Amino acid sequence: MEKSMLIGFFALLINAGVSLGQDIQPSQVPSVVVNSFNKAFPKASDVEWEMQGDLYKVEFETGLLSVDHDVWYDKGGKLIEHKEEVSKKDLPSTVLATIKKDFSKYRIEDVKKITKAQQVVYTLELKSAAEELKVAFDTNGKVLSSALD
Q1: Domain containing 49: what range?
Q2: Nearest residue to 46 (alpha-carbon basis) of 23, 27, 62
Q3: What residue stretches are annotated with the Putative beta-lactamase-inhibitor-like PepSY-like domain (predicted)?
Q4: Residue pair 95/105 in contact by the 8 Å Cβ criterion
Q5: pTM score
Q6: What's 42's domain CATH number?
Q7: For residue 84, which of 105, 115, 63, 53 has the smallest C-alpha distance?
Q8: Tens digits of per-residue pLDDT, 8-28?
Q9: Which of 31, 55, 84 lies at the terminal end of a domain, its last residue?
Q10: 141 and 97 share one domain
Q11: What percent of the chain shows pLDDT beyond 70?
């Protein structure tokens, strides 16, 4: 019994490692993917590639303030998802209005803009003295999800 639990545990660890992604060398990324990336983000720096399932994930920075980006491409070079750090001043006024109305006791931290299939979602941490929330908003300010962190 103990042996089978140990084997199951190691199998779970191995599977978790594969699903989280594996670092790969740029030379292992298909040229169509690299070309799409270079065209979309010509000023990218500190570029790191990973394989996540069937997708190529690239982590990089842009700009003088080193804004972090995570972008996923399919094998054909199509951009699937883009997650980037943004400033709270870049949030739509509709999102800011919802925060002011429903989360007035919280301060805004760690803002991310996620674009997937032409849909934009903003995720952020809202912190108060007593708790921290992770909240996702659509561009109209509607709360899509909220959870204690």
Answers
A1: 21-84
A2: 62
A3: 56-144
A4: no
A5: 0.81
A6: 3.10.450
A7: 115
A8: 333 333 343 444 678 999 999
A9: 84
A10: yes
A11: 87
